[in-house]
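Researcher: Here's my situation. A collaborator sent me these components and asked whether they could plausibly form a single complex. I don't have experimental data yet, so a predicted model of the whole assembly would be a useful starting point for our discussion.
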Amino acid sequence: MFVEKVRTEGLAHLSWVVGDGTEAAVIDPRRDVDVYQRIAQEHGCRITHVFETHRNEDLVSGAPLLAARTGATVHHGPNPAEPIAYAETVREGHRFTFGGLTLRVLETPGHTDDSISLALYDPAFAPDTAFGVFTGDALFVGDVGRTDFYPDRAEEVAGLLFDSLDKLLALGDQAVLYPAHGAGSVCGSGMADREVSTLGFERRHNARLLLETRDDFVAAKLAEHHEKPPYFAHMERLNTVGAEPVRDTPPAPLSAAAFSEQADARIVDVREVPAFLGAHLAGSLSLPVGMIAAWAGWLLEPSETLVLVASDGEEAAAAATVLARIGFDRVAGYLAPGLPAWAAGGRAFETIPAVDTETVRARLRGAAEGWTLLDVRGVEEVEAGRIEGSGHQFLGELPACVGDLDQGRHYTVLCGSGARATVAASLLRRAGVERVDVYLGSMGAWKAAG
Amino acid sequence: MFVEKVRTEGLAHLSWVVGDGTEAAVIDPRRDVDVYQRIAQEHGCRITHVFETHRNEDLVSGAPLLAARTGATVHHGPNPAEPIAYAETVREGHRFTFGGLTLRVLETPGHTDDSISLALYDPAFAPDTAFGVFTGDALFVGDVGRTDFYPDRAEEVAGLLFDSLDKLLALGDQAVLYPAHGAGSVCGSGMADREVSTLGFERRHNARLLLETRDDFVAAKLAEHHEKPPYFAHMERLNTVGAEPVRDTPPAPLSAAAFSEQADARIVDVREVPAFLGAHLAGSLSLPVGMIAAWAGWLLEPSETLVLVASDGEEAAAAATVLARIGFDRVAGYLAPGLPAWAAGGRAFETIPAVDTETVRARLRGAAEGWTLLDVRGVEEVEAGRIEGSGHQFLGELPACVGDLDQGRHYTVLCGSGARATVAASLLRRAGVERVDVYLGSMGAWKAAG
Amino acid sequence: MFVEKVRTEGLAHLSWVVGDGTEAAVIDPRRDVDVYQRIAQEHGCRITHVFETHRNEDLVSGAPLLAARTGATVHHGPNPAEPIAYAETVREGHRFTFGGLTLRVLETPGHTDDSISLALYDPAFAPDTAFGVFTGDALFVGDVGRTDFYPDRAEEVAGLLFDSLDKLLALGDQAVLYPAHGAGSVCGSGMADREVSTLGFERRHNARLLLETRDDFVAAKLAEHHEKPPYFAHMERLNTVGAEPVRDTPPAPLSAAAFSEQADARIVDVREVPAFLGAHLAGSLSLPVGMIAAWAGWLLEPSETLVLVASDGEEAAAAATVLARIGFDRVAGYLAPGLPAWAAGGRAFETIPAVDTETVRARLRGAAEGWTLLDVRGVEEVEAGRIEGSGHQFLGELPACVGDLDQGRHYTVLCGSGARATVAASLLRRAGVERVDVYLGSMGAWKAAG
Amino acid sequence: MFVEKVRTEGLAHLSWVVGDGTEAAVIDPRRDVDVYQRIAQEHGCRITHVFETHRNEDLVSGAPLLAARTGATVHHGPNPAEPIAYAETVREGHRFTFGGLTLRVLETPGHTDDSISLALYDPAFAPDTAFGVFTGDALFVGDVGRTDFYPDRAEEVAGLLFDSLDKLLALGDQAVLYPAHGAGSVCGSGMADREVSTLGFERRHNARLLLETRDDFVAAKLAEHHEKPPYFAHMERLNTVGAEPVRDTPPAPLSAAAFSEQADARIVDVREVPAFLGAHLAGSLSLPVGMIAAWAGWLLEPSETLVLVASDGEEAAAAATVLARIGFDRVAGYLAPGLPAWAAGGRAFETIPAVDTETVRARLRGAAEGWTLLDVRGVEEVEAGRIEGSGHQFLGELPACVGDLDQGRHYTVLCGSGARATVAASLLRRAGVERVDVYLGSMGAWKAAG
């Protein structure tokens, strides 16, 4: 018997392979499904069942693809917003056996109406005591699922989640927790960076589970603020009908000439932040590989053709994989020569200066004319503390309003560390703002400076 | 934060890497330590601490090697049989912090006097509630440690283990269990093939923990029967002073001529059982890769030079790795041409027939003259059911008594499936017994036939 | 600039990736094309051209698949037996440039009418001197292509090949040779086991090129004897229209019960020869992984559903890959438990004894009644030396005549080493012959014994 | 039979594994020798011989390490500057046989006195015709070895090389060329970026071989200009006695705090050029991974302790591997958080602006006061064309004279593309020059702009 976790960075998405003997099940597979087949193969198993704990809104489900490849059946909870074309509906109490293991379905709505959890049993040993439970987006390590997807039914669904959590805790303190997300996910903000827990540990230390009454719980959930990127709607559509397989060819290297021919494509620079600041192509969007999962869904359209600027083919391939996981398939290639070689061909480049705390402070003191200190963090972060004199515009919503900015002003952009600020700065430059720099270190440096 | 398991097949040994931020600790590393460094590297960590839950008797510890490579310190419990040259002694209540995690020492003697457990805390979240515990050979999934290593103090140490388990359970139902062995180990016979559990699950379902009184527990432990292979003494010596690193060169392929020059070396055939039966070299010991960990310590001497017969270089390398883990370092190479090519060079080979239930039954019915049906399973297995008319000699002790067998008799060897029987048959043939065959299917087939 | 060789074992097929800058071409890709994309990616290249030196008859071409994945164009010589649906026709003198390299087409018919060679130039350095040449099946290291595919035009096509070789040699002694096959291929019998040569070396030492006149060359070619397995026709059909992609899922492990349910499937045992002799399933065909490429096309039908007996999942996957390369796609899974576990479930197995020279000699001397020594080697091998008293039946044609054998006779099968003999023995057993054994060592051992 | 090339990037060093049957030889192994063992293992060979074509001056030889691991013997030519402690001396005409292959020694002095070449024969096929030759640093694809290592005997050794090349060409046009370097090496400046050639191709197209008389050849060689980095002397010492094995632990990740504790270590920033420009640590040396092999030997001391700034652990490990290949072993770790996180901790960073052709041209036109355009390319490059008004100081010699620069001046640094200029700029900043920028695109952009 084995349980193996597959962590998808960026999305902090967790999927699981659980198997015994020659059979295995997969819970919440992502779109690039090779990894599940490899794990099953290593354990001498074939995949017989695929479960979705709910219709994922933050990534493309690999369930239909994995089923097509392996002959497994896909199982999904009741009451999805739209029928899931590729799945069979399961209900409370349904049991599935593979190898010597049993998974039992618990309907646990709240995050979504179709949310289920799956309790894991070793019948030969203890047929009635779950030794683990796959909780999807109902219960995480240190947090619970967000309940803001049905604005008209906000109280109702928060209450449903309270009941679902009660049902989960009734499985007993001994059950190991296997959730669908870890720290860093947009599906919950208070998750612990631990990824190991049990119902017993959560019962005692998860702040949301410590709220004793249903009313307190509902009130706390209603007070939360979550952002919902526009690509969620695209994911939901795809995960109703089933996405196409990821194409099996990594992005092609393009010479400078071939790259320049892609005049209509959007240029996405996936190199690390300082590399973008140091030199980049005019009009390119800064979006380092590690930030794609969180931000591409805000800043890019699935229908756009993209060309990448990457440090090497491996980085370009990693970027394309992450893009595909959230439904962005149109990557036409990447720039093969580095920026020095690009520039040595007589081609134009741009730079964005990084400035430090001393510089920002001096400008603030000087109340510099025509200068704006622009904070691009989320609402909750800004409410928790901001620099006096700064303006605010959430990065995710910048594309919609960047055209309204005064192109003649001088902007210094800040966030938590300078990473999101660089992304924002690239949007400002593209929108025609001439004078943009990035406060590297940002709020972190500001606080450290006292 | 991460906890990663490293499973060593054959020994069913589990070691663990636990890390956070840029620092990690390793619990009970095996001798080939690359895997721990790779895991740490993947998580962006350096290894700062190595812990041994006790002086391992069934495999060579990699703790001193890993410490030498990484600069980590090695920590070992109090009261080892002999001082551990490479380790610092830790005691009840000592705490070690790396990244944002804390490990707290619990002295948990019983299996050995120097046994410790290590409770795992996430201080920022819950400084007093362990979310996991590394239990070494004190507590397993479905079993507890064996307590037969101090025959003169049998009752005492069984009692010590009872107390240690009490101390462990006091950590709470919520703690995830990280033991040093899984199913298939010689360090406990009742382990579940699950490798996922919590103190809560064990408290409810582990047969040994369900014994309510200390006396009942001690009585149950005293009634157990365990085999202790002779190489344990060798391991204990090595793990006091620290073993040499594993050599970094896989076994060399040898042409038939070069192989034949190794006249003084012991020939070990690591191919699968049917391949050995089909054709093998005269005098060779059958010991398939997957059986090496369990049986080499009974059947080979660490001082012997070995040459392997393997299906290919990869299998030979795997065999050499397993041999090194239990202290057998002298592998001079492997036979590169397969048996057909060996035979096509005009070189001699032998075969051992596989016989089935029908044949064995007919011989038993006929009370064949000069024929013995020889059962080589362990005492506990034989006591649980045997074929009437069969003799018994435990495989592990066969080397000591094989010379006493009547070389003129015809032996059919059996075990659970035919695997150990083939190993035994190879020993009989080497000892000069002319007529040997193997009951393929053995007790499994016998029972299936009713 | 790089030239990388991809060797496909079993078929001894050589394909090539040649690239420069950010562009690469592939010559004669096999069906599992990932390897070409990986090589191109490692060199920072995208694949822009795919060339077929002729319509392959011995393996499935990957050209259309690779083109579909990468957007490359496929180029094929003129005069194919049937139009190649997925390729553009190239002619003498056509030039293709990618990166800084040029490939020039030479029409080199003889092996087939559509055979071309491709001379390789580095124009910046020496625009008129080829530094290498891809020769397909026209010229090999130590041999030339077979010319027996047009029986009605035997003399004509042998003469065409003579002229083609003249054209090749005119490129100069300095050109490195990049052929489509190495030693062990069915596409030529005299190839050197070297895979490194130049036109200069071949001109001096290739026995066929040392024949001075066209007439001598034609005569020599007409005197050759080649076998043509029945699957060649299937390959030729596939390589006209383009094969489907290989399925991306390795064979599934099957429990003994699940395996037994596949009652209509053909059982193919891909383990090594001695393992089959030691124990195997009734009715199974012995076909070790390394022999599949050479023999599956003689002994299996592409339309048959196959289930494998393999040592492990990795071996089963390797077998499925080789089967797919020659058009056998229907692998339903493999038996996961080994033969001992299979037998321990009370299931039947069979064995085939291996016998040695002494035994064979004794039987020959005794002129054993009802016994036949059956040689299954090829005609050319038998003509070069055989054991007096043996019968002969070429393994490839055994399926067609095995039904005519006397099921009551006792057969000892031999070949060069015992490998093909084991395959033949499995066919005899399946056809109902009760008493079959294999002369392990076979002609090799016979000669060594003098 | 196989010949496999191992290319060491940066040094453009080529080493070779040639094998047959179960035996293989390695020519000119580098210090990290795992790759040779892996290749031998894949081909079912053990390494029986190691050859050095001469005492390498540009990298650490792995010959003694490989011999210690495998039991192979090491063979070196006669007349080394100092005795090679770990090798046996071979002489003209010595033959070595492994598998079915033979290597014959040719003494080919000129590059060094101890240079040998090794002709490769397939005796069964053509005992007197070499099908390949390992030429070390005597003959390359498109160039010949440099002959500037004995300044007092410059004419003599150039003449010796002429004679050696004659000896090589006498092997015949058909021989494949296996040299010790490819394009990009400091051991010869005119090498083709092809890495495939034959003696026949070189005879016709290698400019140095087209010089007909010994005198013309010697004159041409004396007119060459080569740089000799100071670390060559260190390599020569190491390669006389044999270096220690590379340590088997990759650089440890260091938190910002742990990194800051390494106050005495030299900070080497191995990220790509634009990343350094965008943000870097004060006092750090810019040395991207791909430039280490060429420049570390000029700019660093083997005795210095280094700490790295890298994009991730993989890049840090790659950097440490390259450093070890040229004898720099003291890497104490790498900075784990990226520059944004470093800055967010309130820690200082610096930037260097990249400027373009327009800016440089404007400054030149304005004859800016206190401003210097500094060219850091090699002498031969500068002689082939420079920007009027620029100063020159070769990057390799900058450490020795950077202290003499006027710290108050404003420097714009240029090279071919901006890469070496960034390295130089980091040296200037470290030496206290306040105002430094880099002409990104440099001479390439300048020429493209006309």
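Model: Some features of this prediction you could bring to your collaborator: The CA atoms of residues 279 and 349 of chain C lie 6 Å apart. The interface with chain A takes residues 21-22, 34, 37, 41, 44-46, 69-70, 247-250, 252-255, 258, 312-313, 317, 333, 336 of chain C (CB under 8 Å).
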